[in-house]
Amino acid sequence: MPGRRTHKRNNHPADFAAPPLNTISTGYPFHVSQLQQMLYPGAVQNGMFQYVSQTPPVRYVFTQRNYSSAFGNVPVDHPQGNRTTFSSRNQMDRMRHESSRGMIVNQNPFQEQNSVPVTAVANSKVSICNEEGVWTKKNLYAMVKAFVDDPNAEEMSFPPTLSAAERHMVHEIALNFNLHHRSAGCKSERVLTLKKIGSIKNQEKDREIAALNGDRVKTIDGYQGAQRLPDEYIKSRMNEISLLLGPFLRKMYSQLKATAAKPLRNRHLVVVQPGLKKAPQGNAQNQRYRELQEFRRSLPSYKRRDEIINALKQNNVLIVSGDTGCGKTTQIPQILYDSEVFQKDLEIICTQPRRISALSVAQRVAEERGETCGNSCGYIIRFDNMTSPSTKIVYMTTGILLRRLHTDPQLNGVSCIIVDEVHERDVETDFCLLLLRDRLIEQQRNNQLYKNHVKVVVMSATVQIEKVASYFVCVCGGKAPPIISIPGTLFPVEECFLEEALKWTHLPPSAVPAISMLANVSEKKSKNHNSEDGNDSSIFEKIKATVFGETDNDPEVLVPYDLIFKLISYIHASSHDLSESILVFLPGWASISRVNTMIQRSPIARELSVLQLHSSLTAAEQQRVFYRPPKRFRKIVLSTNIAEASVTIDDIVYVIDSCLTKGTSYDARGNTSVLKATFISKANGMQRRGRAGRCRAGVCVHLLPRSAYEKLPEFLLPEIMRSSLEDVCLQVKALKPDEVCAKVLSRAMDPPPADSTEHAVRFLKDMGAFTSEKEQMTNLGRALSKLPIHPLLGKMLLAAACLGVLEPVVTIAAYLSGKSPFIKPLPHQKNAMRNAVQSIDNGLLSDHLSVMKLFDEWKKSNCSADYAMQNFADQTVLRSMDRIRKQLLRLVKDSSLLRKVEDPMRMASRHSSNLGLIRLVALWSLYPRIASVEYRANRNRKRPEIFCWDNKVAQCAMGSALAFKNRDDFRDRAFVFYHERMYLEANLTVFDASAVTPVEVALCLREFALRPLTDVPPAFLTDDESKMAPAFPFVLEREEEAKDLAVLFFDGDKKLYVTSLPVGLLLRDVRECMDYYLALSIKEVRADLFPEDLIRVLAYVVGYPFSDEVSAIDNNTSDKPVVTYGEEESLEPTTIDCGSAQLNDISGDEDDAPEIFMEDFEDLQMTEEEIQRAITVFGELAILNRQGGLRLLGAFEKGVQLRQVEADLIRGPEGDFVSEEREQKLRDEDAKKSDECDDEEDEDDDIIIAKAGELDIDDNEY
């Protein structure tokens, strides 16, 4: 076993302690010395950390050297840090470690002027920072993000004081922000510079310009030279595949040409969500009805009914600002319906942001009207329609309204739309307001085009009302719409804070982990927003706010579990009335489960009825929170923010508010997400407080100090500003097909960042929903817009039905639409859980297939909780998956996709036991979320590195089946596809991943091009700049000739693979057939149009041929485990009569395969007009885009020709003349290259930090 490797540095002399980081474009210097003061002494002043002052602080002392010429003079203010204590055991080790960076001297009054004190803190993460130096990856990430977020900064330089490991971290972070990053200089003068590149379009143009100039600009930092395609299995099956494929190729060409001559005909996917055929019968008891009518008349909203009616008669828009408890959600729709302001046969729609709100409010209104839900009042939520022909008051989620606009853009039969809970500012609500405002404007301009004139009522809590009113000025004749403010009827609610909670429970402040975030709130509150002042202080404050203003810790870690449990116990002991229930707001499902477990294991569990409330539960399970608890029990409701609005639980008296919310924040510049723990806003706190006191006086305990609570923001940033917009942009094009997405979204109340829209549109182009040039919707995009799920999952369902693997893929889609069924293990359970996951995976290296197998075995065990526990799975999540799975199956079954099939479910799932087809469908659906698996070139390191397709360095989640796998495990699987990615502790992590081969990826790419090896310039065949080695090195064998080989280009030149010309052509043809017949099936909305024998071809190509027992094939590895899944019998695929050819008597020799030439089928004999018509009908088919992936190669070749012409002109008739200017330019370029050192120095050594006795080096990794 190799010994521990440590990083050695030379002492870097300096004339000051910490040089700055320059921001060239603004002239604002980023000072390392300032950041040191910020990280430690500033933190002490803010009370974030506690120090132990025992021994004098250790100081760095550097000898004098002048860096001012490179970085400028920096005045250094010496922070007076508190002293720190080293344990006697580790003190000398730490002193020796620090001495590698500079001389250590004791504190004395004659200390050198340029010394900088090093302070240590009790926090474990920051202590690591002290041992390594100033920087941690988290700090460096924050610094780079601050630079990226500064619109005035274009370039930033890090000083030479960074270690090689620190520079390596900056390089990785720069990749993830799409920055140009370069280290220049040698040894003690090595400087790392970051530059902003620009938009995606600008980057593509820059690469083409560079190619014209003879330079190949790398698109990913992985190896981009030519590699050998692992295709031995395909070579052994060439004859069988070719014979099966031939008829489909000929049919495809003839149909394409015929389609171009036919008139355009579009079919649309019809998704049916039927309601009740007739109104349900049932009347409420007279006594209950009278009580409810008396209660209605007591509500403030009911008392203002005349004012509401008159305002809406005179205006198209009305804004209602109502406090919690005023009854606006239940009463205003009834008031408008009963007042006969609108025709009785027209609907009044009221939108809700959550399903539980729409369901519970509709049931309450139906009860108030003395009816059963589904009569005059009903609801529509995803997968549940409780309306009938008699229903005229409809509560629905905002998403359902958006999808109704697809089929009925005129909103026929609708008189009024009420948008409720606008203050929450979720994405769909903001988009809905945009569409309604556009409708009102168009309605005023073209009055005669609309049969019924829709009116809009916007309802919100008493926040941001002025902003909402100003948004609708343009539809009210230039004046603000009327605003009706309605007070609430809450009983008095006493607000208590952390001080009281700690006093009641006798716990110290350290029992609240989120206390460390309090200083951040203060920093955000006092942050200087004027970034144009141009002084050093404003930049420093900006960096400081960036580094400490955001917390990306796991929200579940910040929950004060002990305090919450003891508060519940204290309230239960103090309150003698068991009917006084307790509502606890927690950030997520994991924290709900943990608090529930703590209660169940306590003695008071026998006196409490604990209920959970979150989005993963069924409607019936969610409804339980509204029922009274059993006698002699107190009800405890553990809820996420789902209970904040429009949910009234009558018996809630006590509210415990953790003041935390769990959210995924989208970073538009980096096109990544971050899981953040954030404090709620005051508006959220007001809503949570309002859950108490609905029926009697109540108490709300906010688990923050009173002073900190007062400093919370008034409201959070609108969700449209911090979310990815793929689904929104898809809806935009479905509803506004003639406008570009950016233009439509610019009309939102708060327009999203331009980068968010650009990334979303590019994503939809890559997945085939939009055309690449004009941003037009394809047939696939139109179909996906009709499905009430994310576009990726909708694409998965469509492909699964065509390839006959619907049931297992629906299981995967149900898993991806919710939470992972695997629990987060305790520290002592990690190894056992890892073994359980690996046992289920069985070498497949697939999270998707692992969860599918787990679910199937759980169902076979009769949904056993013991089975789930043994495999570290959550029984509740598995039940949720089962429910969603049934809903998705019903969605596909009831759609028009299977309308021509007698036995839809059997036909759509006939190949459910073929793992290769299942994985291929998942890969095709989740593209472009793929990544390459890379290995270091100059090390014998077996652990792979993952580079996402947009050139971001990532790692697999700790619970993934791919985690901790080495090169031998991956074998020929050189790619990974995944469902989502996000930053966890400054590390980009991919979730729900599977490993696949280059052959599988070739079938699913957006661009796939093929060229003979002899036609490819050497610059594209090698990659001398990369630090990565080829996974499958290409060397021309003795028996091979270059003219017989082809180069496969993956998405431009991101990856290049060399294979024989017949294999390359075969792969291209299989890909084009698969692409065409999927497009045909989606265009005609018929899954049965995908040929059965083409499915057999795909099974051959991916290595899972049809057989009695579906097994993975690997001709080269006899000990590879045979994987068998499922018990369903695969239907015997039909065969095509190929004359005298016998498929069962085929030689495995490639030489016996049919001879194929490069020019075969190259000429489609279609005019440009016919090709454009075919694109309009089918979308951008692979066969119509064969040269799309060769743009860079074409630019390179064109540049070679232009330079040859230029050289001929310069050479003249003598052939030996070169201008002095050109010669000098060449000399200057050579000198510049010689001045720059290779970036490899940044990564020469691995730095391993571990405590004594804890170092464990894995032989498999090094």
UniProtKB/TrEMBL annotation:
Composition bias, Basic residues: 1-11
Acidic residues: compositionally biased ranges: 1236-1247
Coiled coil region boundaries: none
UniProt GO cellular component terms: nucleus
Enzyme superclass (EC): hydrolase
Domain R3H: 134-198
One protein family per Pfam: DEAD
GO molecular function: ATP binding; hydrolase activity; RNA binding; RNA helicase activity
Keyword entries, A-Z: ATP-binding, Helicase, Hydrolase, Nucleotide-binding, RNA-binding
Amino acid composition bias (Basic and acidic residues), ranges on this chain: 1214-1235
Span list, region Disordered: 1-20, 1214-1262
EC number: 3.6.4.13
Domain Helicase ATP-binding intervals: 309-481
Cited SUPFAM superfamilies: P-loop containing nucleoside triphosphate hydrolases, R3H domain
InterPro entries attached to this UniProt entry: DEAD/DEAH_box_helicase_dom, DNA/RNA_helicase_DEAH_CS, HA2_WH, Helicase-assoc_dom, Helicase_ATP-bd, Helicase_C-like, P-loop_NTPase, R3H_dom
Residue intervals of the Helicase C-terminal domain: 563-736
Protein name per its UniProtKB record: RNA helicase
Lineage of origin: Eukaryota, Discoba, Euglenozoa, Kinetoplastea, Metakinetoplastina
